[in-house]
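User: structure tokens for this one?
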Amino acid sequence: MSDQVLHSISHRRYNPLTGSWLLVSPHRTTRPWLGQQEASSKNELPEYDPKCYLCPGNQRAQGDSNPQYKNIFTFVNDYSALNEEQQDYTPEASKNDIASLLLQAEPATGRCYVITFSPKHDLTLADMATADIVPVIQAWTRIYASHLSPSHKLYAQAAQALAAIPASPDGEVAPPTKGQLRYMQIFENKGAAMGCSNPHPHCQVWTTSAMPDEPRKELAQMAQYRRDHGGRHLLDDYARLEMEKQERVVWQNAGFLVVCPWWAVWPFEVLVIAKRHVRALVDLTDAERVQFAEAVQEVTRRYDNLFETSFPYSSGIHQAPLDCAEEEAETSWFHMHFYPPLLRSATVRKFLVGYELMAEPQRDITPEQAAAKLRNCGGELYRKTPN
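Assistant:
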């Protein structure tokens, strides 16, 4: 039976990246909504806010003052979720096997950073031109390269990338870590609906001594796929399939594919996939950094245009771990997730509650329907066009 029937019946879809399933219920899009509604964000902010702890020259919460930076500013988070130095913890040896099985803990160390995208308080990535996002990509590349293990397969590649990328004109506060860390998660929370505490354009970078669960699951699934399919890469095969079908493709250029994935949980979830085997940021060429910046700009601008609001989301890059064996590095395939919560309008959001928490994720509109809406949201950013 044709896949077209899936647009009108409830069904489950498989996520090969995590090995999980989700429920799709397209018939629920007509249900009335009397629940919570978010305030529509019009992004009416000043270019400089004297109370903002990320604006140039301002004092941060713990007393340090920001420099009068003109481009991008990177610093160690004043309220890091992970610390490099802390009290030692070694689990006590126990004769109680059940306790050893069920009450497990291990120390977690690391370092967290904040990277501002611009000195201007009122901008978002959607407002910024591709050329203005390229320095953001370069900052991500520099901080990733500076944390790679010397024994890493990509270490020499990272040195070449650092030599090719201009240093930040404002400098970066990223001193050497006290020990080798395992993984780096670069992510952005945009908008109050996604828990962002400051609207100044910025992202966070958390480096950890352990492998976090989501990238760990993805790497395990991608490794299994390579073993089962003669060394082929899951995301390479998937990108080629999506480009052939075109049903869920939102946009693409020479280097990157933007797609609403078959297994998307969030209503307008997007996956940005490198078209060739890019293992991490340091693999990107100069041209590909521009192409990646263009992809990020296209996604964020189309989000804002969709409901004519400053669209909230959480986004994050998945790439090769900082410290890993050659097989793990070669299995990695560079991609970026965007998880936005809005469902029907600028004020109605998707909640992952009830069935989603107790059973499995569920979505209403199909990824194909979401992709069609995002394809139609290209063009000039809505707030830059005359009324």
